[in-house]
Amino acid sequence: MFSTYLLQSTKNGKMYVGYTTDLKKRLQEHNHGLNFSTKPHRPWKIIYDESCCNREDARRREIYLKTTQGRGMIKRRLKEFLYGKRSKN
Question: 3.30.2310, 3.40.1440, 3.30.420, 3.10.450: which CATH number matches 2-83?
Fold first, then answer.
């Protein structure tokens, strides 16, 4: 299985899209600074992921989510999480 995932920086709110076969390990790599493009924005948290049965479908989904149309779709899908009022609990 392959996961296409969306990370959000807890430092500055930036988002990152990628795909992997081991999501837990990949998150650790991002948070340990092993990825050049995500290193300055650590720490990261997973806010969305999708599973695919093969690499090509996961990669295609990653590419789509990095487009303007894909970013808009994911922001609409996660509207309450990203823009909703946070509870004070």
Answer: 3.40.1440
